């Protein structure tokens, strides 16, 4: 049994829509924006009101106090008649907002422009607030007044006050405008918030749409940049870079699968048919079997080598930079590789120069770096028919990290093919005759990327020059 | 050299193949099909060498060897593993393994490695002189003589010859030489070792009637005196 039943009809739709609306960031941002706007405007107006209304109030109190002092002085000097005269004189002024009243101890009104002594009691500041029906002019309406009451020597009572309807009007006006301003602030805040958050949300919506498309399997989708360079634009840029990277990796995996299908299936088929051919032979000469088995092992070893190379590349590619890294002396790695390959080059009539400057140390995987360098030397020696191979290690210089270069005097690689040879299993036509699996440079490239290094292929005029430019430490 | 070998390997086909090959090479073999059985056998019998698969049901090879080492068992251990990355190798050696071989491997490689492991263990005192037939190596003065005649070697040739002499009589594979002399735990594309051995032969064997460096077909090389 559900605890609550959803209301039917349009009420249900509203009930459903409100929470959803509340869950949109745009809405919440607008409301927050409006609320902040209202609070700040309100505080500002409150301050203005306080200072304006308060100022007028104080002004009034001051003038009343001065007047009272004057009247008391008059009473002291000229007695009751003097006071009554001044009061009568002042009360007779038309359109005055001053209120006077003098009362005898027996309660009889002696002078003043107030019809009767008000029965309001003074507040803690000595002010009495009461309603007056102004006698000034026709169509007058009841207004409010504030007055101070004093008892003069001889028990005469004096009342001096002001008609405060003007102040009240001002107050009302201020309150009114406060209301308008707050309403305006709410509306403006909502609109402003809406516009601002809508702008941001539209971009986020676009990002969401793109990610949904990618989740759906379409890896080509990219987030449109607003070009404003703000945080969301940066997020979009980062997302796009990430997607590029993912797409590259996916393409890489697809390439490997294709290459495995092609480059491993071919030798496996060859292996299988070789065994089969020997088995269907009638003459069972042990020597034939032996030879066939030996050939089979050679073929299987070649396959295993290819596998090993693929796994090394995978190891370099899946590794994250810095994981299990240790300080590696590049000069040492280079010396070791040169030392290993020197006799190989010599046997081929090539000169192997090792030009090692400094002892640059970087953080890296020594085995993978050694393997990359060995592969470069291996390739250089393999493809150079005559001349020399030079291995150069340069220490870090201002603006760049250490660099390792292998240059040969072989045929080189045409510029348009340089990008291509880094791909797995790619071998230039001229190289097909020599042994190799087309994975050597792919591994070097993967190792370079693992170390944040850039693999640069260039001409050596004649020959090939391959550099591993490591990043600044 | 006949050895008593314990093979701890959960894949029965693989362990049967290992046992067959090792027996044909003249060794005595016990097989444990999981970690528990392996631990029991390793504790109750004395073996010359143990061949341990890294991934075993029940108790994996790494922790098994760690436990054996903790209990004072120092029988040489060779790890077999399908995991071939440098990190895996380092983990295996850290756990107390003495050598590490990645599947698939050539049987000759396995035979050569266990023999070297057992031999290394029996070597005892550090030596200052190595002698094989009329070939002498002085590790202190770093000089090599054959039949009383000085032989000039480059530093790397010296290291290679030292490795061969320390394992004289045993088969030393190309991979073992790369690992021990160059610290290369991968196979370069070209057979660089053959070139280095050819160099060494030029200096050690060329001017003498009996060669000391012998090629072992399908496996590697062996340094041994005639007879």
Would you count the extended β strands of chain A for me?
Answer: 12
The CATH topology of the largest domain in chain A turns out to be Beta-Lactamase
Radius of gyration of chain A: 49 Å
Over the alpha carbons, how many angstroms does the gyration radius of chain B reach?
A: 19 Å
CATH architecture of the largest domain in chain B: 3-Layer(aba) Sandwich
Poorly predicted spans of chain A? none
Q: What structural class is derived from the secondary structure elements of chain B? A: alpha/beta
Sketch the topology of chain B as an H/E string, one letter per element.
EHEHEHEHEHEEEEHEHHEE
Strand numbers in spatial order across the main sheet of chain A: 2-1-5-4-3
**SSE class of chain A:** alpha+beta
Explained architecture:
The complex is a heterodimer of chains A (473) and B (227). The two termini of chain A are 67 Å apart. The longest helix of chain A is centred in the N-terminal third of the chain and has 67 residues, at 25-91. Chain A has three domains: 19-213, 2-Layer Sandwich (Beta-Lactamase), CATH 3.30.450; 219-318; 326-469, 2-Layer Sandwich (Heat Shock Protein 90), CATH 3.30.565. Helices cover 55% and strands 15% of the residues of chain A. Chain A has a five-stranded antiparallel β-sheet, with helices on one face. In chain A, strands 7-9-10-12-11 form a five-stranded mixed β-sheet. In chain A, β11 (454-459) and β12 (464-469) form a beta hairpin. Chain A is built from eight helices and twelve strands. The model of chain A has no long low-confidence stretch (mean pLDDT 81). Chain A is an alpha+beta fold and 473 residues long. With 227 residues, chain B is an alpha/beta fold. Chain B has two domains: 4-122, Rossmann fold, CATH 3.40.50.2300; 129-223, Winged helix-like DNA-binding domain superfamily/Winged helix DNA-binding domain (Arc Repressor Mutant, subunit A, Orthogonal Bundle). Chain B is 41% helix and 22% strand. Chain B has helices spanning 12-24, 35-44, 61-70, 86-94, 107-122, 155-166, 174-182, 192-204, and strands at 4-8, 28-32, 49-53, 77-81, 99-102, 129-132, 135-138, 143-146, 149-151, 171-173, 213-216, 220-223. Chain B has a five-stranded parallel β-sheet, sandwiched between helices. A four-stranded antiparallel β-sheet of chain B has the order 6-7-8-9, covered by helices on one side. A three-stranded antiparallel β-sheet of chain B has the order 10-12-11. Chain B is elongated. The A-B interface holds A 294, 297, 301, 304-305, 308, 311-312, 315, 324, 336, 339-341, 343-344, 347, 365, 367-368, 370-371, 374-375, 378, 381-382, 435-437, 440 and B 84-87, 104, 106, 156, 182-190, 192, 195-196, 198-199, 218.
């Amino acid at each position: 049994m559900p605890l609550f039943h959803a209301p039917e009809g349009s009420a249900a739709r509203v009930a459903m829509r409100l929470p959803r609306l509340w869950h949109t960031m745009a809405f919440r941002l607008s409301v927050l924006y409006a609320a902040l706007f209202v609070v700040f405007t309100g505080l500002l107006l409150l301050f203005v009101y306080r200072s304006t209304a308060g100022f007028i109030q104080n002004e009034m109190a001051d003038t009343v106090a001065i007047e009272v002092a004057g009247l008391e002085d008059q009473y002291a000097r000229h007695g009751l008649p003097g006071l009554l005269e001044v009061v009568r004189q002042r009360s007779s002024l038309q359109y005055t907002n001053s209120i006077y009243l003098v009362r005898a101890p027996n309660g009889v009104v002696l002078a003043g422009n107030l019809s009767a002594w008000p029965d309001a009691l003074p507040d803690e500041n000595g002010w009495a607030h009461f309603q007056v029906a102004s006698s000034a002019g026709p169509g007058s309406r009841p207004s409010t007044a504030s007055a101070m009451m004093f008892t003069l020597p001889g028990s005469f009572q004096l009342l001096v006050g002001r008609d405060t309807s003007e102040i009240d009007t001002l107050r009302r006006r201020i309150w009114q405008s406060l209301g308008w301003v707050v309403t305006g602030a709410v509306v403006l805040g909502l609109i402003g918030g809406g516009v601002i958050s809508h702008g941001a949300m539209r971009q986020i919506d676009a990002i969401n749409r793109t990610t949904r498309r990618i989740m759906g399997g379409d890896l080509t989708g990219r987030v449109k940049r607003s070009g404003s360079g703000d945080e969301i634009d940066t997020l979009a840029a980062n997302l796009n870079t990430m997607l590029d990277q993912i797409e590259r990796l996916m393409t890489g995996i697809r390439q490997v699968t294709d290459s495995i299908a092609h480059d491993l299936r071919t030798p496996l088929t060859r292996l299988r048919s070789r065994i089969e051919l020997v088995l269907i032979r009638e003459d069972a000469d042990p020597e034939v079997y032996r030879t066939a088995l030996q050939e089979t092992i050679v073929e299987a070893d070649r396959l295993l080598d290819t596998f090993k190379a693929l796994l090394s590349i995978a190891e370099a590619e899946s590794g994250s930079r810095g994981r299990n890294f240790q300080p590696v002396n590049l000069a040492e790695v280079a010396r070791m590789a040169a030392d290993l390959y020197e006799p190989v080059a010599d046997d081929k009539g090539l000169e192997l120069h090792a030009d090692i400057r400094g002892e640059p140390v970087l953080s890296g995987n020594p085995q993978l770096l050694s393997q990359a360098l060995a592969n470069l030397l291996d390739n250089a020696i393999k493809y150079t028919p005559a001349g020399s191979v030079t291995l150069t290690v340069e220490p870090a210089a201002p603006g760049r990290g250490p660099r390792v270069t292998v240059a040969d005097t072989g045929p080189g690689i045409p510029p348009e093919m340089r990008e291509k040879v880094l791909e797995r299993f790619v071998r230039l036509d001229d190289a097909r005759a020599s042994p190799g699996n087309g994975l050597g440079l792919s591994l070097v490239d993967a190792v370079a990327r693992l170390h944040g290094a850039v693999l640069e292929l260039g001409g050596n005029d004649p020959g090939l020059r391959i550099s591993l430019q490591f990043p600044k430490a | 050299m006949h050895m008593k070998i314990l093979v701890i390997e959960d894949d029965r086909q693989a362990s049967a193949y290992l046992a067959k090959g090792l027996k044909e090479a003249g060794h005595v073999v016990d097989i444990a099909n999981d970690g528990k059985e392996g631990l029991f056998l390793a504790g109750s019998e004395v073996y010359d060498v143990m061949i341990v698969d890294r991934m075993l049901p029940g108790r994996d090879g790494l922790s098994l060897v760690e436990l054996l080492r903790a209990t004072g068992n120092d029988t040489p251990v060779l790890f077999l593993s399908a995991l071939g990355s440098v990190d895996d190798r380092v983990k295996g050696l850290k756990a107390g393994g003495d050598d590490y071989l990645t599947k698939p491997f050539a049987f000759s490689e396995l035979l050569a490695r266990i023999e070297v492991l057992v031999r290394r263990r029996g070597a005892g005192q550090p030596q200052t002189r190595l002698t094989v037939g009329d070939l002498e190596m002085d590790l202190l003065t770093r000089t090599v003589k054959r039949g009383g005649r000085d032989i000039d070697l480059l530093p790397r040739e010296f290291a290679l010859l030292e490795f061969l002499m320390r394992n004289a009589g045993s088969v030393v594979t190309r991979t073992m030489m790369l690992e021990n002399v160059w610290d290369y735990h991968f196979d370069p594309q070209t057979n660089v070792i053959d070139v280095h051995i050819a160099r060494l032969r030029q200096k050690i064997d060329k001017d003498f009637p009996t060669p000391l460096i012998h090629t072992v077909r399908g496996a590697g090389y062996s340094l041994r005196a005639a007879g």
